[in-house]
Amino acid sequence: MTMQAIGKPHSRVDGRAKVTGGARYAAEFNQPDQLYAVVVGSTVGLGRILRIDAGAVAQMPGVRAVISHLNAPRLAYQPHKGGTDPANGERLHVLQDDQVRFYGQPVAVIVADSLDHAERAAAALAVSYAGETPVVDPLDAKVQPVAPQAGRAGADRSRGDADAAFAAAPVTVEASFDMARENHTPMEPHATIAAWSGDRLTLWSKSQFVVNEQAEIAAIFGMPAANVQVICPFVGGGFGTSLRTWPHVTLAAIAARQVGRPVKLVLTRRQMFHTTGHRPRTLQRVALGATTDGRLTSLIHEGSGETSRYEQFVEALTSTSGFMYSCPNVRTRYRLLPMDTGTPTFMRGPGEASGMYAVESAIDELSYKLGIDPVELRRRNEPAIDEAEKLPFSSRSLMQCYALGAERFGWASRDPRPRAMRDGRLLIGWGVASASYPCFFSPASARVRLLADGSAEVEAASSDMGPGTYTSMTQVAAETLSLPLDKVRFSLGRSDFPATPSHGGSQTMSSVGSAVRAACLAVQAELAKRAVADRRSQLFGASIDSVEWREGRLSRKGDAAAGPSYSELVTGAGGSPVEAGASAARDAAIAKQYSMHAFGAVFVEVSVDPDLGLVRLRRAVGAYGAGRIVNPKLATSQCIGGMVGGLGMALMERTALDPRDGRPVNAHMGDYLVPVNLDVPHLEAHFVEEQDPHVNPLGVKGLGEVALVGMAPAIANAVFHATGKRVRELPIRIENLLDV
Amino acid sequence: MPEETSHIPPAAAAFPPVSRREVLQATAGAVALAALPGGAADSAAAAEAGAAAGHSLRITVNGHAHELAIDPRQSILDVLRERLNLTGTKKGCNQGACGACTILLNGQRVNACLTLAAMHDGAEITTIEGVAQGEALHPLQAAFIEHDGFQCGYCTGGQIMSGLGCIAEGHAGSPAEIKAWMSGNICRCGAYPGIVAAIAQANKAVRS
Amino acid sequence: MIPFTLQKVLTEAEAIAAAGQGGRYIAGGTTLIDLMREEVERPEKLVDINALPIKHIRAEGGDLVIGALARMSEVAAHPETQRLQPLIAETLVEGASPQLRNVASIGGNLLQRCRCPFFRMLDAGCNKRAPGTGCSAIEGLNGGHAILGTSDQCAATHPSDLAVALIALDATMRVTGPGYERSFPVDELFRLPGTTPHLEHTLRPGELIAEIRVPGGPHARRARYLKVRDRSSYEFAVVSAAAALHVEGGIVRDARIACGGVGTRPWRMRAVERALIGKAPDRAAFEAAARQATEGVKPLSGNHYKVELLPRTIVRALEMAGEVA
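ok -> structure tokens follow
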């Protein structure tokens, strides 16, 4: 039997748990004697707390504690910077002073014996403030843009003389874009159950990065990391909002310590819009210069994004502009707009999604100006190498993506003229855009145990917010060990498992997958070492180099006879599980040799009702060059999910802030619109064959981000094709299209 | 008083009751106003002392009878999750705006978050935990796995309960109909095409 | 949510007596429980009226008669609704979600509170929730707010789709009070905000909606509802229009039009109706008539687009109605 676990469309190994209600999320680990905590958020957008009338509330039924800066413990807040924390600035220190930095900032937490009692008390708590007017609008003249202090992603870059080339170009496009703030809005609200046992703390907590949450909470409380355990086997959607450890986790731990009992704290849906990050609103300007035959001579991309006063959130807003197109003169500039808001955070396709919305829209504008098909325009400017880094791509299949996508979509039959395609009274538009996202590979580790029954247990901290980590890691282990899938049990979501990087940035498959593979090879090596040293083994005395694993059996090289199985070897060695751990990391030399990215091409069809301003997506085809596809079924779901996310970005999602106090006005799932079932038409995801030996040992590139990135500009471009009107803000809504 | 009131959210203006309100002058000339959400903690405290007694509730969940004393404020969702430890029914928004809490209440799909348990004494409730027959998955559950009608899984219980309702109501006749009648269940991961395919398949299986 | 007591009643008399002692009726509760959780609503006593025998749906003569406790889903699916008043069925299905429609009652639908976000946020001024605290929307974000029937105190739209259809169809309602019954047009249920935006309807204390009656007529079959919104479903109307036409001999004899999403109450478009009478039912006539809809509009900073969208929505709804075979 030859095992082929990788590349097969296996159903999710955790599918049964999820369809029977058996998968347990953070808030579902109810503890004995558990109390309930509810956060009270600031009702001013800037200022100082004057008074908290805790006394009246403390007397209310069931209330066990009212904790604010007045009585909260002074916490250590030792320095800590996880990979998902901004490099510059200092995180919010919750309940440590009387300052209000943004609307909704936690100012108190109530603990009570029931959720109803806690909610009632939270609503009744009187807090008075010295309020000031916050600055929350990026267009406000009081906003002082700053250059990001550090980090390559935020640095201004330039090659050639883009401004001179733009001035000299025979054909130019110059346009500005405004993309709304978005909130991740996962289905599962942030939740933490905190339980202290002496000086040890256990947190059942929604997290995409359990080892960082462990380290951060340990730093905040000034305790050894080994005394903090974070558990999170399932994440009910994250999209980035659970990458950082937000203040509510600390609040839950404070509350549990204060009352001496386990405490459950779940944010309300409204609070999900206050303190758990958001995709920053961005303002961008793109200027393109081209020859009349469509060769780019200048690409200028300037952008700015919201950040808080206390941290610099930097995302990859302009980073793709250096390598997507062949162009001798490129200049990018990125600024941050510090305002009185909570710190933004990574949201699916962070930076790339916003930045490529602007650039891919501008390229589309250029295609009309030139009279060149937008796919052809991209082909004419396809670079041979990464011209920003002056490195070859480890692989780049963008043109193959365009070819495949165009064929599946039927792009050739497009009438290029705006407003030329119709269906009855509806205007039909076809649009296209490129997508790209880097191939990250961060150090990761994993552990494998082979049991006497011949099965394997595999562990890594990691997370599975939906892409299918449980399944794909099971496949990697099964393939590496030549075991059937049901002989492998993969566990994740515990901070005492081997450390892994954040479950974000499309790096789980590459990083954790490589670690799982390495650990499987390590446990095989360990078992082989034992076998050749074991007098009872038929392989006793063989040199370690003379044996090899073939389909889960250890044999002498060249000996066709099947050797002992895992079960026989483990049993023969006494029956105790044989365990090995291993780590994986990118070879630093490789990173200096290649530019590594996933690419995609997205084709969409929209209809626009010109009378009513209604845009509806009618179909979409995405083609992706994302390296090896470990599980086509799950990869397809991941891409379709990304397209749906991009649909939301294009046509619905917008967190609106009240300029007077910075409150998110539509902090409600009925008002912050995301696509519903009826909004989603037939969507196709296709993968081009791509073998990339450089990105990581598995040859995978990651899909989560690139799947979303091209969707919004493709839709915006299709809206132009349908209507002849270029809307340069997202989301595009009814009110934008009543004049078409 | 040299107040600049224009920047104050009208919000803070005339409530809570004046007796609880403070108007203070901050050092830099900024205006301070108290905002007491809800107000009237004093009268509420008195009322709550009297309401501590609790309400007796008998419900049948997935065929099992339960009798328990509840706070009349508790939704069926909170009773399931916090009292009966049946956590397959999810709290997504607690506002009737997402569908993650969908259960069958006396055979009909409803949002458990907007349903006061105390108003449903004697009710028969089916949650996602009660759909499979022992080890045997319901055809709709199996179809969700087959068509990968989920990613993170948090909306899935609600989707399946809603899908069962959709099929029972006769609204699963075509993909278009399923989409319209499943639009009360948000899936942020965007697994809608798989959800539609799963319900269409199960509808055929159930009706054949 | 503040604590409350719950009383289940079995008769209308019992219900009215309980209301007389300060009770607040609850049927489906999809609005009330939501707002109680936000502490926007703070009833101390709930009167559960779900056991009252007013769940009927039937034809009486040519009228469709609907008990106030009939559920949205039941009314939408009922053969008599589909036979006599397909507009009611269509309108109901466009509202909320299947789960909510299984629970929400017809009476409660008419009395649902507004969706203005400031109404729901206790730390925002709102004259409707807390009279005298100012309106946060009029000088703030108001893209979803009303352009008709506003005052300087409130601009929240009425969210019900059903009410739009009922007003277009000249439905009446019967209410039961302490020792009496009275009937009146549904149109008279809704108040304008004026200086008292917290008073939304004309029911007297303790009155219970018993029944809705939708008169039949030649217009009833040629009737459609159009709900314009950015999301295809599960969203309140940006603008909506119910349109019913009686066309005979190629001429509009009767027209009933009402709109949602634009008014502080469901808005009957009588001037548009008048402009249609005697005209051929074509797009030109519809467009000319629909121009009447925006007379007297008072757009706010963020909702000028509704002035443009309103007549277009009416035109499309009329076209849809005109296409009904």
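Chain C has a mean pLDDT of 97.
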